[in-house]
Amino acid sequence: MEITFLGTAGAIPTAARTNTSLWIENNKTAIIIDCSGDILHKLKRYDLHYERLEYVIITHGHIDHTFGLPSLIESLRLEGRTKALHLYINEDTFKRQYEILESCNLLHRKDGFPIIFHSIPLINHYHLLTEEGLDVFTHQVKHLIPNVAIRLSNGTMSFTYSSDTEPFEAFVDFAMNTDVLIHECMCAKWFSDPLVGHSRTDQVGQIAQQVHAKILYPVHFSPKIDENPERFKEEIAQEYTGTIIIPYDGFKFRLKDDKIEKI
Ligand SMILES: [Zn+2]
Ligand SMILES: [Zn+2]
Prior knowledge:
This protein is an alpha/beta fold. Helix content is 22%, strand content 30%. The protein has 7 helices and 15 strands. The strands form 2 sheets. The chain has an 8-stranded mixed β-sheet with strand order 6-5-4-3-2-1-14-15, with helices on one face. Helix 6 (201-211) packs across helix 7 (229-237).
């Protein structure tokens, strides 16, 4: 399976980074996790097989994770998509997202493609879907509104994406022994106290260490990331002995056999 960072910023984008969202594909299917910005542009720009897209997962209702969804659906429709798209939406924001799509005249169109809605229940260790060798699980996290983390496994390897959360014990249990941890890292020690609902460099390092992740990709950064990415990394490394990679938008890696490779 191949993973591409479609964005790596928190709610405030920078000149180089857009809001955090992820693309996951294998040779048969593809999944988008969170939907911000001009998604189809990014899929084309990063040369991804967007015809494989079958699933979109929305972790929570904050605008930096959702606002690209209407434009993704409309741009795929205009390009002539006919294949159904499955939308998995956190139950807390399900109704609102549905209403937004409906008010944009994107549903029930004769000239559109089928959209199949699924609500993500706020249940821990929930098995969300199985498809083409991929298993997706969700787990509630601790954010300003109800939110879920996602763990995705291809049978031999797994990655866990925290979405937006402050550190807490049950997440460590959910992410335990994941090969790759993609964790939000909203702020750093040199400029911020710990935040409610988000994680700081030292906390992210502690979590990566506790779950025994082989590689940590911090994401969902404050705009200060572009001033000094190395300082973010150094602060995390004080707590975590594994490999830390600060991804840029468009960064790709692959989980294959027992290896994690940059593409
Ligand atoms: Zn966010
Ligand atoms: Zn959020």
